[in-house]
Design a protein that fits this description.
Length: about 400
């Protein structure tokens, strides 16, 4: 049994290992077009590798995938988060869970995950071919021929794990096999707000609710102010759920921000009234009952034309109302996006209707399997994209040899 795995990322390694764990006499060759393996694994989570998310419930887990949730619901019955944790445990990697549910190796080093996968590949006898790009797949009898660096290589089964691509042309060789490609577009990107004074708060982070005016798109969580606009988990989640709609708007829209985590203006007004006596003689800069970052509070005071040295009790009601409006109903004109090139995530890829979720096998071409981001699957930030890679890779590898 000759199995060709195309792509040396997380899904590719898991597919190769799964195939050999299921059938030790298989000849599994992994083809990687570059000279680097597991690139995204190395840089994920700031170099710590966000392996998965602590969510054992499949029904809750699938809610974190803007595209592919129904498909993954079936796949997760075969291999899900507990299976991922157990797999790495068997390979001497212990994972830890952070407060927000993200799971990392206890070493806080992505090298731990890379080494575990590389060692497992060596132990199982995975044949790795670097600088070996596959440009064409041709059905042949009961198998396939792969065009690799000018040569034809035969395989009984093929597993495609080439990841997502920003341009549709990159999927042309798969379209030639008859598969429909859902047009790719960026997911998980930050919002550019050019020529706005909020850039002076670069590095400030706080919980907020962000909403795109004129849509139902909304997200709550940490927001990070950058030198180009807004980032952070809440913004990235919003970009994922709104990937297609925002692309149709050419990434030009109005963003409404509630800087208090979504608390309504009436609630904030009540807090000000309750704290009025205690704050009356305090300078405005020291009269923040909402416990916002100091730089951010003073920035909003300035926008509301409030002197930070002025006693809170002498500030006109009109100015306080303006301040409350800025905290709960701030608005920014977004003009463009910024994607993380190394960690690029796409919405789009192989149409899921043409793939069996319990085998990751093409419904059009028996013996051709898919795994990872080459499929029209993408998750929000937090380890969900890696979990989809582990799951689809495991199923594809096992199914290819059975």
């Amino acid at each position: 049994m000759r199995v060709a795995v195309i792509g040396g990322g997380a899904a590719g390694f898991f597919a190769a290992l799964s195939a050999l764990e299921q059938r030790q006499d298989a000849i599994v060759t992994l083809f990687e077009k570059s000279d680097k393996l597991l690139s995204k694994v190395r840089i994920s989570g700031g170099g710590r590798c966000n392996v998965t998310h602590d969510e054992p419930s499949i029904s809750r887990l699938v809610k974190n995938y803007p595209r592919g949730a129904s498909f993954l619901r079936k796949a997760f019955t075969v291999f899900a988060v507990p299976d991922t944790i157990a797999w790495f445990q068997r390979h001497r990697v212990t994972l830890k869970t952070e407060a927000d549910g993200r799971m990392f190796p206890v070493t806080d080093d992505s090298g731990t995950i890379v080494n575990a996968l590389m060692e497992a590949a060596a132990d199982h006898g995975v044949r790795i071919k670097l600088r070996s790009g596959v440009s064409h797949i041709e059905p042949m009898g009961n198998g396939y021929r792969l065009h690799v660096n000018g040569q034809w290589i035969d395989a009984d089964k093929v597993i495609v794990t080439t990841g997502g691509h920003p341009k549709r042309e990159a999927y042309g060789w798969l379209e030639e096999l008859g598969h429909r490609i859902v047009p790719p577009m960026p997911s998980l990107f930050t919002f550019n707000i050019p020529d706005n004074p909020i850039h002076q708060l670069m590095g400030v982070a706080l919980p907020a609710r962000v909403r795109i005016i004129g849509t139902s798109l909304e997200s709550t969580g940490p927001v990070l102010i950058t030198h180009w606009g807004l980032s952070g988990p809440a913004v990235l989640r919003l970009s994922a759920w709104g990937a297609r709609e925002l692309a149709e708007r050419s990434y030009r829209f109005t963003l409404q921000v509630n800087w208090t985590g979504g608390r309504p203006e009436d609630e904030l007004r009540s807090i000000l009234q309750l704290e009025a006596m205690a704050m009356e003689r305090k300078a405005a800069r020291n009269a923040d009952p909402f416990h916002l970052p100091t730089r951010f509070w003073e920035y909003q005071l300035a926008r509301a034309d409030i002197d930070p040295a002025q006693p809170w009790g002498t500030i006109p009601r009109k100015s306080k109302n303006r301040l409350l409006d800025l905290l709960t109903n701030d608005r920014y004109d977004v003009r463009g996006k910024t994607t993380f090139k190394e960690e690029f995530v796409t919405a789009g890829g192989i149409d899921l209707a043409e793939v069996d979720p319990t085998r990751m096998e093409s419904r059009l071409r028996p013996g051709l399997h898919f795994a990872g981001e080459v499929l029209d699957i993408d998750g929000i930030t937090g380890g969900f994209n890696f979990q989809a890679a582990w799951t689809t890779g495991f199923i594809a590898g096992r199914s290819a040899v059975t």
